[in-house]
Design goal:
single chain, alpha/beta, elongated, five-stranded parallel β-sheet, four-stranded antiparallel β-sheet
């Protein structure tokens, strides 16, 4: 499935069973047996799913989960624990778990639950990026790429690019662009917009053909193909 699962489980027999089974299903799997080691792996934010035990040496799973959520991590977490009281399930879910499965467990059920979380993760990830042609913006990290190369944009240049990316091949008036990106009235005199378009063009065109086109008497259009009235 191309996703990485972090298993934090101190029972070696259960952990070995999970690691082997999940790898056979196409997951990349990392395993840690203690709370401190689990936290170090979780805090790096490099996994797509976490399978977390409650009872762990060093730091318990509930504390790990609370710390994980307080640090801003949104990675889906499945609690896999022998604590089966309703009150424990409520505590785990309230602490930020996305799902809760009690031991002993059925492997097929565990796998089905992980697939659901993986689909949610993939759907959420799709909303983090805006792309068109070979340009991509990561809305979480504010990283901008063209043809796989990072672009160093100012905050306003990035806001302008995102505005264009969300409206490909549409002719946009200067008034509409300015009042949307700068959130103030366009007086028709200032060359602020033109300057930012020029600088954004320069950075984009360092790694590929022109994407921002000037349209005579109408404004700008963003796309791989020029539109009627294009001045380049």
């Amino acid at each position: 499935m191309g996703m990485k699962v972090l298993v934090v489980e101190d029972d070696e027999e259960i952990a070995d069973f999970l690691v082997r089974g999940l790898r056979e299903e196409g997951f990349a799997v990392d395993w840690h047996a203690t709370g401190p080691d689990g936290w170090q792996a979780m805090s790096q934010g490099s996994c797509d799913l976490v399978v977390l035990d409650w009872w762990l040496p060093g730091i318990d799973g509930l504390t790990l989960l609370k710390r994980f959520r307080q640090s801003g991590h949104e990675t889906p977490v499945l609690f896999l624990t022998a604590r089966d009281a309703v009150s424990d399930k409520v505590r785990g879910l309230d602490a930020g778990a996305d799902d809760y499965l009690c031991k002993p467990f059925d492997y097929e059920e565990l796998l089905a639950r992980l697939r659901v979380l993986a689909r949610r993760r993939a759907a959420a990830a799709a909303d983090w990026f805006i792309t068109h042609a070979d340009v991509r913006v990561d809305l979480r990290t504010h990283q901008v790429e063209r043809a796989g190369r990072l672009l160093d944009l100012t905050a306003k240049q990035q806001a302008l690019l995102v505005f264009f990316l969300r409206r490909p091949d549409e002719v946009l008036s200067r008034t509409r662009i300015y009042e949307s990106v700068w959130d103030e009235r366009y007086d028709g005199v200032s060359n602020t917009l033109e300057f930012h378009v020029m600088e954004l063009r320069r950075k984009l065109e360092a790694h590929g053909p022109r994407l921002i086109h000037t349209v005579r008497g109408r404004g700008y259009a963003f796309g791989e193909r020029p539109v009627a009235g294009d001045l380049g």
